[in-house]
């Protein structure tokens, strides 16, 4: 991408990006630096975007956590990690993942495991349980919830 030399153009383009979809400050910081904006002007631009409510990491983290949970079936561990990768503050991350509805969270985990259990061809119950646990861990759910949900699903079979 051609570097944007003009600070006003960069801030205008960043504001347009933030208007189209929710972004975090880490994403915008990376974009501005990629466009050739100096680090000092990048921080100034981010401060302005936050002041004008184009950019809000708390709002972003809340939407991100809900969307990844509902549409991608991600657990809290995977959501936390993804938000950390985006440079979101850890207190904001904790706030967003604890805001997920616990009953809905457990229900989704049980549904995911139930659906996967029907597709697994295993020689033993032990092997099936291990595969279900690994599957749920890959989705980012907590081990204690996984073991309870897997035991419940296997008990129904």
Give a structural overview:
By secondary structure, the chain is mainly alpha-helical. The chain has 3 domains: about 5-50, no CATH class; about 55-100; about 100-155. It contains 9 helices and no strands. It has helices spanning about 5-20, 25-35, 40-50, 55-70, 75-85, 90-100, 100-115, 125-140, 145-155. α7 (about 100-115) crosses α9. The longest helix has 16 residues, at about 55-70.
The average pLDDT score comes to 94
Separation of the first and last Cα atoms = 55 Å
Q: Please give the radius of gyration in angstroms.
A: 21 Å
Major sheet: size, sense and barrel closure? Answer: none
Low-confidence stretches are: none
Globally, the shape reads elongated
The portion of residues forming beta strands comes to under 5%
Helix-strand string: HHHHHHHHH
Secondary-structure class = mainly alpha
Question: What is the number of helical segments per DSSP (H or I, 4+ residues)?
Answer: 9
The total domain count is 3
The proportion of residues forming helix, as a percent range, comes to over 70%
- Could you give the count of β-strands? 0
Please summarize what this structure is:
The protein is mostly helical.
